[in-house]
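2024-03-11 09:14:02 INFO queue: dequeued item G-protein coupled receptors family 2 profile 2 domain-containing protein, len=156
2024-03-11 09:14:02 INFO validating residues
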Amino acid sequence: MFLLIPLVIYLSVGGIFLLAGFVSLFRIRTVMKHDGTRTDKLERLMLRIGFFSGLFILPSLGYLACLFYEYYHFDDWMIQWNRQMCKIFSIPCPAARHGPPDPKPIFHIYMVKYVCSMLVGVTSSVWLWSGKTVVSWRQFAERLQGKDTRSRGAYV
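2024-03-11 09:14:37 INFO prediction written
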């Protein structure tokens, strides 16, 4: 619960701020269009924010769903593990239930959990990698190799 509750709160508060931001941007866009100002850059920014937030929120929701799955089934898994260990070490076992066999964790859900946790970080880098960023890194690499593309000025 110490992981689930803060993540739900942070995701909810972030969603509220995102919604408020989009409402404000749409109002600004409407005012700019009535004034006759071009809104190309603003619309591109809005599209980029929407794309990034979708790439961030969907894996976060998947991660939360996997955590809820773990939380819901954890007690049953621990009882099953305890039954297996008591047989190995010949100690008294908990009473067996009548009905379906004890559930086991589903491996694929754990893989989805870890992929979703990594995707959140990858989508954060999507925001950073633009054309200007690539050009800046290329210039930096060229300077490290001694191929300074800038004019050398008075230092030569």
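2024-03-11 09:14:37 INFO annotate: The two ends are 63 Å apart (CA to CA).
2024-03-11 09:14:38 INFO item closed
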